[in-house]
Amino acid sequence: MIVLDLDGTLTNDKKEITPRTFEALMEAQRRGVKVVLASGRPTYGIVPLARQLRLEENYGYILAYNGGAIISCRTGETIFNQTLDHSLIPILHKETVEAGLEILTYQGDAIAASRKDDKYVLHEAFINKMPVIEFEDFPSQVQPPVNKCLIVGDPKPLIEIEKVLSEKYPEILSVYRSCGFFLECVPPGIEKSNSLDKLITSLGIDRSEVIAVGDGYNDLGLIRYAGLGVAMANASTELHDEADYITWSNQEDGVAHVVEKFILRI
Q: Most buried by CB count within 10 Å: which residue of 10, 45, 163, 168?
């Protein structure tokens, strides 16, 4: 199995899978390797890439919301799903407002945000190819179930609110940055590697048979967990220090390099 983060890993800066990376992953699947797409994105934002890589016919999987949901591409079945305690929504909104940041979540096929023209909200919309709806009264307008909220803004205040939330609500909330300007707010214990453990256990795959590739703070657990943990060249120093191998950047077909070196052996 190869487990891939999307943004900054599988896709280049245009959010595209390059031809070389596509061909490498298709050949890996032809050889029986399962591909898992593991991302903070909602399911809606991952499905187009899963379809492009033909994960349905190759028995691949999606780990959405940083592992909050596991979906079988073959059947479309959600085989694991954990949502936020809905009483957290007004709390997260209040803390976000006080920090001068913005908050969003996902409602159906759209992003629901506290301010639709915020540049970071628009970046999340671009990543997922989803429209944005502005909720003037975010806490009362958001409807359950909610797998995650995303707090967005400049890095410095985002680091501060990460500390605040992790200290105040450790029993009911997990928070971590997927990049400098995104703070993931998910149910406690939700983390890509924990969901991956559930998945491979159900499939009878040993962690030693897993390659995981990522670039963000939320990929650290994956890199530590996998038999071969790979950090992208564009990842942070912290990930480089933990990785078994550092591949090329997402602009240089880093994922293709990993597949060719460790799976295809070319």
A: 10
Alpha carbons 97 and 116: distance in angstroms, whole number? 15
Out of 152, 186, 220, a domain closes at: 186
Asked if pLDDT for residue 176 goes beyond 90, the answer is: no
Length of the chain: 266
Instruction: Give me the number of domains the chain comprises.
Output: 2
pTM here is 0.93
- State whether 76 and 92 are in the same domain: no
| CATH code for the domain in which residue 124 is found | 3.30.1240.10
Selection from 52, 85, 48 nearest residue 64 by Cα? 48
Cβ–Cβ contacts within 10 Å for residue 1, how many? Answer: 22
Does residue 94 share a domain with residue 75? no
Measured over all CA atoms, what is the biggest interatomic distance in the chain, rounded to whole angstroms? 55
Domain identity same for 27 and 152: no
Residue 222: burial class (beta carbons within 10 Å; 0-12, 13-18, 19+): buried
Residue 136's Cβ-side half-sphere holds a number of Cα atoms within 13 Å equal to 0
Same domain, 203 and 244: yes
**CB-based contact 80:196 (threshold 8 Å):** no
Mean pLDDT of all residues in the chain?
96
